[in-house]
Amino acid sequence: MSQTRNPVVDEILSLFAERGDSAYGGECVSQRTHALQAAYFAQQAGGSPELVVAALLHDVGHLLHDLPDDAPDHGVDDRHEELAGRWLAARFGPAVVEPARLHVDAKRFLCATETGYYEALSEPSKVSLRLQGGPMSPEEVARFRSSPHVDAAVTLRRCDDSAKVAELEVPGIEDYVPWLERVVSIS
Ligand SMILES: [Fe+2]
User: Fold this and answer.
1) Which candidate, 12, 20, 76, 187, has a CA 20 to 30 Å from the CA of 138?
2) Ligand 1 center to residue 137 CA distance, Å?
3) What count of other Cβ atoms lies within 10 Å of the Cβ of residue 66?
4) Could you tell me the distance, in angstroms and rounded to a whole number, from the CA of residue 58 to the centre of ligand 1?
């Protein structure tokens, strides 16, 4: 007998089906492709199931608001990481929520601490960085380093930065159903 799917998993599949084709900012990939490539790279990096799911869902905030894809070009920070954090916290534990919620902070952290990181960012990421507060101050760096989720957040960020490859074939959303079922915290 087949098992019933967790409603949260159905909710996620519906979100990607309905909104996943939208553009990922000014990048060359859709939201769905970006999410799937981020999850794929997290898996390749040896990430835990929670980190793979966090990578898959780190930009879920973009699928939940109705601001235009190019909002940053008009000086608007959609604060999608906070939206994602709240949405994920109602469905998953901290090992999924925190790396996703911190993915913008991780960019600001790496800009402040890693030579060449800023230069390698895509143009849309540089534009949004300005709206997100720019590189972290030394005080913010110290606070960020003290988070128990710093390593996971930085790993997710690198997967995020890499997940903008036109025409890279990766597993589809259905392939992540077992991963989602495994780490979802409500039934
Ligand atoms: Fe992203």
Assistant:
1) 76
2) 23
3) 6
4) 6
Average of per-residue pLDDT across 95-105: 97
- Give the distance (Å) from ligand 1 centre to CA of residue 14: 19
Asked if the model's pLDDT at residue 150 lies above 80, the reply is yes
Overall average pLDDT of the 124-130 stretch: 91
Domains in the chain: boundaries: 22-183
Residue range 158-168: mean pLDDT, rounded? 94
Q: Token digits for 161?
A: 């930065």
Q: What is the mean pLDDT of residues 111-130?
A: 94
35 Cβ neighbours under 8 A, 6+ residues apart: 16, 20, 55, 56, 57, 58, 59, 163, 173
Q: Mean pLDDT, to the nearest integer, of 20-31?
A: 83
Using alpha carbons, list the distances in angstroms from residue 132 to 63, 83, 129. Answer: 19, 14, 5
Per-residue pLDDT of 50-59, as tens digits, reads 999 999 999 9
In angstroms, what is the span from residue 85 Cα to ligand 1's centroid? 14
> What class has domain 22-183?
mainly alpha
Residue 142: how many CB atoms within 10 A of its CB? 10
Kindly tell me the burial class for residue 145, based on how many C-beta atoms sit within 10 Å of its own C-beta (0-12, 13-18, 19 or more).
exposed
7: CA distance to ligand 1 center in Å? 24
